[in-house]
Amino acid sequence: MIKHFNKFSIFIETNNKQTVMENTKQEAWNQPKEPQFRPENKKVVAGILAILLGSLGVHKFILGYTTEGIIQIVISIVTCGVAGSLIGLIEGIIYLTKTDEEFYQMYQLNKKGWF
After folding, report:
1. Would residue 88 count as lying in a domain?
2. Who contacts 25 (Cβ-Cβ below 8 Å, separation ≥6)?
3. Domain region containing 86
4. Model-level pTM?
5. Contact of 72 with 63, CB cutoff 8 Å
6. Is 8 contained in some domain?
């Protein structure tokens, strides 16, 4: 038999003329939680691709910046790869030095396209 009073449950069990009473309180820290869904953080992939293939703008396409990726390719073609590679190197270093939370907020949620 279980009786509920406020936030406490009183459990009464009768065995061979003995009565046992226990106070049990439901505590929030001890309850199983549903896992929170969080989309994939692409920081490391985007950072390494920006350093290695920055002139092709692959890191822009990985992050979902199609227009910026095409602009990066055009800049690379016009400057024979010099400016595009330099931009990719700088962006790769910036991506890898940010914390996971900063990167996620800035480049995946707020969609900051350049630097």
Report:
1. yes
2. 7, 8, 9
3. 43-109
4. 0.64
5. no
6. no
pLDDT tens digits for range 67-104: 999 999 999 999 998 999 999 999 999 999 999 889 98
Return the structure tokens found at 86: 């330099």
Q: Token digits for 61?
A: 């396409």
What is the DSSP secondary-structure string of 41-90? P-HHHHHHHHHHHGGGTHHHHHTT-HHHHHHHHHHHHHTTTHHHHHHHHH
Comparing CA positions, the residue from 93, 100, 95, 55 lying closest to residue 75 is 55
Q: Is residue 21 part of a domain?
A: no
Q: In Å, what is the CA distance from 1 to each residue of 24, 60, 73?
A: 14, 63, 73
- Kindly state the tokens that stand for 12: 């009464």
